[in-house]
Amino acid sequence: MTAPQVIKMYAAREEIYPREAKGRYANLRWLCVWLTQLAFYGLPWLNWNGRQALLFDLGTRKFYIFGVVLWPQDFIYLAALLIICAYLLFLVTAIAGRVWCGFSCPQTVYTEIFMWIERKIEGPRSARMALDKQGPSLSKTAKKTAKHAAWGAVALWTGFTFVGYFTPIKVLAAAVTTLNFGPWEWFWVLFYSMATYGNAGWLREQVCKYMCPYARFQSAMFDQDTLIITYDAKRGEPRGALSKKVDPAAAKLGDCIDCTLCVQVCPTGIDIRNGLQYECIGCAACIDACNTVMDKIDRPRGLIRYSTDHALANNFTTKQIRKRAMRPRVLIYTTILALISCTVIGSLVLRTPLKLDVIRDRGAMGREVEDGMIENVYRLQIMNTSERPHRYKVKVSGIPTLALVTPDEVSVAATETYALPVRLRVAHGAGAKGSNKIEIELTALDDASLHVREKAVFFVPR
Which domains, ranges and CATH numbers included, belong to the chain? Predict the structure, then answer.
């Protein structure tokens, strides 16, 4: 009788110690780190018209995006923004693969920052590997403590900044000295800090390989003309170690000397020479490493490079690759993106920064008052979405003798809502029994272009 076999459904994670890569793409990656983080950490502190330039104030239900103030009724614009971002991601992926993942994704950016801290404190790849193999010691404990403290500081500042997009950051900063945060501020600062610390410090490549859905459906957006990280097997194989005593041509060896540097610099630990894999995030670290080796052994660069499957199979030039980039899929994505963007921008430019909701008093559908007149009561919900105060005049129409009994002018502060109760009356005999359609018009006295009309119903008792 054979012994039972244990089949593991989940393989234990093997620690990855990425080597630092230097080169053109590494510099580009760090440029993206600087640009994205300057924007992320800096935008909450930018002022616009005496307020925070970018603020999603959930408490007051107002979204401030530079000169635009959006209300819950404008949620369609935020939905459109998400659709634009989605189509932009589809377009970029169809053209250049996972370039977003490799250079600008928050997971990649913060992992890059955390690995830089790790290298500065624990040393290069070989030193980190040796340190982890060591037994407990004072030096090891000091280095690990310093690393995690630095990670924690970056994570806390990131969590604080994130919450600063939803709670005015200057108010939040004033509360830091006394730790007088509200319960939701405490929750989200700590939650986002722990997410940053865990994802960038501990999970790293596991987020890209197992948690991120993008890697799973990228194949639906790739085709034979999508730019991907490729290994030129025709040129590189058969691979073998370079020896000064042996002529590579005579030994019939390819340009790949099997140094494995492309594997050592990979943040997800894959071997790009095995072909495109879903774990590849397109960071191009392997290209920098391989180009450095090619320079040292006096071989042409580009053994590992950005290319396409068609280009590798047919030896396309760079000009041919660019020409084939403008294919139907790319044109469709571009057209849809342009149409949605133009529609949203045009709608924002042409929209009137004034909203009016008419709410009838359902407790009194219609009542007879003095002189036999019929009265209906309404509440006008006036929303001044501009950043200037305005005074508005109310007009009504739709039934003969229809008139306002209450004052017909009201002032509303900038970006504020005002509930104005109004009473409308008609003479006895005016209007049909039951429901009568009317219109309520609101016009700014200081700017005639600011006017809106809303339909309502005036009820005459039967």
Answer: 13-351 (no CATH), 354-460 (2.60.40.10)
